[in-house]
Design goal:
Radius of gyration: 15 Å
Helix content: 25-40%
InterPro entries: Acyl_CoA_acyltransferase, Bact_Acetyltransf, GNAT_dom
GO molecular function: acyltransferase activity, transferring groups other than amino-acyl groups
Oligomer: single chain
Number of helices: 5
Protein name: Acetyltransferase (GNAT) family protein
Bound molecules: coenzyme A
Organism: Actinokineospora auranticolor
Largest sheet: 7 strands, mixed
Pfam family, one: Acetyltransf_10
CATH architecture: 3-Layer(aba) Sandwich
Structural class: alpha+beta
Amino acid sequence: MTIRVAPLTAADVGEALTVQRAAYVTEAQRYTQPFIPPLVETVEQFRADLAVAVGAWSGTRLVGSVRGRVDGTRMEIARFSVAPDQQGTGVGRALLAAVEAAAPPEVDTFWLITGADSHDNQRLYRKAGYEPSGDHVDKVGIRLVVMAKPRRA
Ligand SMILES: CC(C)(COP(=O)(O)OP(=O)(O)OC[C@H]1O[C@@H](n2cnc3c(N)ncnc32)[C@H](O)[C@@H]1OP(=O)(O)O)[C@@H](O)C(=O)NCCC(=O)NCCS
């Protein structure tokens, strides 16, 4: 089935939060931490975070989404999620490229946070040009890696 990538709107938020929750369960299990931010986000918080937001559809089914959070010239890639049964088929790569393309013109750097033990994710990000730029332990004790890359003209 062909994947269609398009802006995510308020009408999509219910479905997108459902997919996000399903996708992030494996990360929660990896770190034995059920209260990671993507799993405790509310519909209202999600609706308030649609300035740069992209979804992927297979037919009429929403199979993934990702958001960009702009702060000055930097944009964080956040809440990157693909439905479990659709993972590993290229949806994530398409979403990542689309959210980068949707960044406003003032953005010159993309960055993101991922778990230090999430090696599959880090491989995907490295292939997309991201490099580790720091690490820290969050308030629930998970070791995180910051990755970043410059925007190319
Ligand atoms: C991370 C995620 C959005 C990637 O989307 P995807 O559609 O599975 O990714 P793609 O199929 O486009 O790309 C596959 C690449 O992603 C990586 N990857 C990450 N998680 C994966 C998974 N569960 N299954 C397969 N590949 C995965 C691999 O490096 C793979 O590269 P490879 O082909 O060299 O093995 C998706 O797997 C997901 O929702 N994971 C759970 C939530 C999460 O961890 N989000 C990111 C937090 S930083």
